[in-house]
From TrEMBL:
Keywords carried by this UniProt record: Membrane, Transmembrane, Transmembrane helix
Bias (Low complexity) ranges: 195-209
Region Disordered, annotated ranges: 186-209
Species whose genome carries this gene: Streptomyces venetus
Full protein name: DUF4191 domain-containing protein
Pfam families: DUF4191 (PF13829)
Residues annotated as transmembrane: 9-29, 35-54
Length: 209
């Protein structure tokens, strides 16, 4: 998958591994310990190539997901411990969608789709939540590459940087109260992760009436 997006990944990894090993081996000969430094260089070469490969593979994955409906949900599913995510809490027939994540930063509504249309989805979701979680801070993020939007590859980092204002028990209590609202995923057979581009909400569905 990475090679489809990053054609030079093999050459880059080989160069990093060889250079790292070569530098340590050369230092080993200079100080009279080529075997010791050679073994150390070999281990560090594997470590360096693994780190670089991981980052470039992640970049390639984000590149393939960019622009696909539901891509943000895939990122939220892997945001890490301390967060509870609920994909597709709101959606319209144009595939504009809002996902919800709850953590110590409060409630984060992550929207993807047309910036103008998605504002009404966010407003409706905030109004609905305000009835039961008015005391919890709510952040909204719009995934995209335009001004004021968050790029898909930066979504996880942006959320983790939000100030923590809730305790563990408060997060649990917030999740319990939000379950009463339900979500589209519990009522529709939507696939996890990026949704098929041809999929459309039925007429009369939530937020489409």
């Amino acid at each position: 998958m990475t090679r489809k997006v990053d054609k030079k990944i093999g050459l880059v990894l080989a160069a990093i591994g060889i250079v790292t090993f070569g530098v340590f081996l050369a230092i080993g000969f200079l100080i009279g310990h080529p075997i010791y430094l050679g073994i150390l260089g070999l281990l560090l070469a594997f470590l360096a190539t693994a780190i670089v490969f991981g980052r470039r593979a992640e970049r390639a994955a984000f590149g393939q997901m960019e622009g696909q409906p539901g891509a943000a949900a895939a990122v939220l599913d892997n945001i890490g411990r301390g967060w509870t995510t609920t994909p597709a809490v709101a959606m319209n027939r144009n595939q504009d969608v809002v996902h919800r994540a709850v953590g110590k930063a409060g409630i984060v509504l992550v929207a993807e789709g047309n910036p103008n249309r998605v504002k009404s989805l966010l407003a409706a979701e905030k109004k609905k939540m305000n009835r039961i979680v008015a005391d919890v801070p709510v952040h909204d993020l719009l995934v995209g590459t335009g001004e004021g939007q968050v790029e898909l590859k930066k979504l996880r980092t942006t959320m983790l940087k939000l100030p923590r204002v809730l305790t563990g028990p408060q997060v649990t209590s917030t999740n319990d109260r939000l379950r009463a609202l339900g979500d589209l995923m519990s009522n529709m057979p939507l696939p996890k992760g990026p949704m098929p581009k041809g999929m459309r909400m039925p007429r009369g569905g939530p937020n489409g009436r």
